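Question thread 4412

I'm putting together a teaching handout and wanted feedback from people who do this every day. The idea is simple: show students a protein as raw sequence, then show them the structure tokens that encode its fold, then repeat with a second protein so they can compare. Below is the first pair exactly as I plan to print it.
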Amino acid sequence: MPAASFPATRAGLLLLYLFFCGLMLRIIAQYIPAGTDTAFLGIKQQVIDVPGYLPAFYIHVFTALLALPAGLTQFSKTILRRAPRIHRLNGRVYVLAILLLGGPSGLYIGIFANGGPSSQVAFCLLAVLWIFFTARAWRHAVAGRIRQHKADMYRSFALTLSAITLRAWKYVIIAGFHPRPMDAYRIVAWLGWTLNLAVAEYLILKKQRI
């Protein structure tokens, strides 16, 4: 690929990312004001009275407002070079949003995921790996292990992006294959983040070979 095409490719990917972030904002906006039967909660009536489920659900939903934009800025070479303080500040926001809010709440609500054990294991494993890679990326940064820090940030942000890719795959699978809704949900519970992680590992290996 010619070198001149890389800026266009990056711009296209950024626009695609912003488009899906816009869709995420529309989804999140459905939960303002908060309710007990709003949007997705309409099919979770059997668990909304479980102690802590409703607060955990809303914490997880709104964490996307912090994790998605803060995470993206961590990969900007321009910000890192010209404004390292912003890089560090956004990094702290990203790490704290996941370790204190998004990760634990995602693990808790994952226990009650629709689709039975398959989906429950998928979402709980996603939460555990999200916490693990984010915490390890932070430890590497503090210790000055920059290469390892970057690798784990790739992994962490790949899992953060599951908020977007899960929904994107759901639309593709339903439009292309017309499965039963719960079957589609079980598929995207895994596909929404495992493929992201595989792409992250490919990019990490590719950079290590350069």
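The second pair follows. I'd like the answer to focus on this one:
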Amino acid sequence: MSDQPDFSQILDALQEKYNTIDQNTDDHLYGLLYSKPITYWDYIQTDALLNLQIQRTTLPDEMVFIAYHQINELIFKMILWEISQVAEKKDLDAAFFEGKIMRISRYFDMLTTSFNIMREGMEVEQYMKFRYSLTPASGFQSAQYRLIEFASTELINLIDYRFRKNIDRNTPFTHAFEHLYWQAAGKDHKTGKKSTLLVNFEKRYKNEFLRFMETYNTKNLWTRFKELPEEDQNDKDLIKAMRHFDYTVNVTWVMAHYNTAVHYIESGIGDGEATGGSDWKKYMHPKYQKRIFFPDLWTKDEQDNWGNNI
């Protein structure tokens, strides 16, 4: 009896795999003879990742600031990855939906609690010095966060509260874009002139945003939820998960960010303005814009008092 393992089933499976994509199985097997074994550092690309933190000043706590925001962007990427699976799922049901929503919520729960790293992890004096080297950049310019908003809800729920009555699903995307809630933070409220912060942001991302807005207009999380059978829409666990996600993103996480900004900007050191020059209080605090991804899952009283109790 031979002690040699039987690889026939694996080889047959490989043969089927490569036949399906019109590939020669022998070529791929020969390639294994010359390929290097994978290592952790090659797979994760740690050398590249750890060389992305480039300081603009000599102040040590700037490293905390840079690394923290890069971690946020990686988490945003993971969130968008989960949302895309709901958006593209053909046979969507409550169980799959809830599972993805809870994954996303855990990411935002982590983002919320992590603001203590920003609040307690940097000396106020250092931040108030190196922040001037960031002007006119701002966390406002996180494109991935805007994509998360577009992918989460119908566009009307992201329109500046003052203009929602005049915008509907037939409104051109270019017009709706000019009335998104965060536009107000980048415009002079008297003249309407856009700040350098907003001009630079739009120059880099506007076309991508418009394409993304159109793509997710019919497959954002809120639209996909409303496509579910009535029984699934009434699933208590799914509704609970949706409400948790909505409140975490639009109130809890935002207020953690807001309170961290207050801690530094109103410390008495500096000019009390955000680096990008935005009216950051009215832009950030949820009670002003009432950003709610899934409005029908909240009572009128809950909507009216959105963010008021924080």
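Top answer:
Good format. For the second protein you could add a caption like this: The chain has one domain: 57-304. The two ends are 74 Å apart (CA to CA).
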